[in-house]
Design goal:
By secondary structure, the protein is mostly helical. It has one domain. It is about 80% helix and about 0% strand. Helix 1 runs antiparallel to helix 3 (about 45-60), helix 1 packs across helix 5 (about 100-115) and helix 3 runs antiparallel to helix 4. The chain is elongated. The model has no long low-confidence stretch (mean pLDDT about 95).
Amino acid sequence: MLNSLFPVALRWIAAIILAQTLYFKFTGAEESVWIFQQLGAEPWGRLGSGVAELICVILLLIPRTAWLGALLGLGVISGAIFSHLFLLGIDVKGDGGLLFYLALVVWVCCAVVLWKDREKVLQLVKK
């Protein structure tokens, strides 16, 4: 039973973290706007990444498409992690690294979900 609940828990953890950032991206919260200004991608990068993250959330919560949500999630969150490492820094506007560490949690959750569903990915690649 634990083996079947673990991937579900990881999907939900990633989806919840991604979903909670949507409010800030779609309402133009000051910190979110600042981040994307630093990246030279305000407003379209902020809104585009918000849409991509919303799609990830939906796909992660549907068991049949969770692997696809995890794959997309890895791509989106890898961009966020690289932005922190090379442009923004770990601590963004005094958050103590919270956004960075949450991004790492999402990355690990998505990577494990994708690994557990690797057969579906391999079937897609073979087609």
